[in-house]
Amino acid sequence: MKAGMALTAADPSGLWGLLKESFAGGSALTQAVTGANTNALVKAVVTEFSTSEGRRAAHDCLKSKVCH
User: CA-to-CA distance for 67 and 47, rounded, in angstroms?
Assistant: First the structure.
């Protein structure tokens, strides 16, 4: 999710491009959870990231590695 956000921010495609990239990222996450052939670990990570606690933990981890 963070990688998708970074790619979206790096592309100067304006508001329409931002919306398209956001929808593409959301679609990819949905496919990862519902896909029959998706790896169990990938499903677990996406499911965890879909909770506010999971997002907060991922954010805090990334922040501690980038800021220090």
Answer: 26
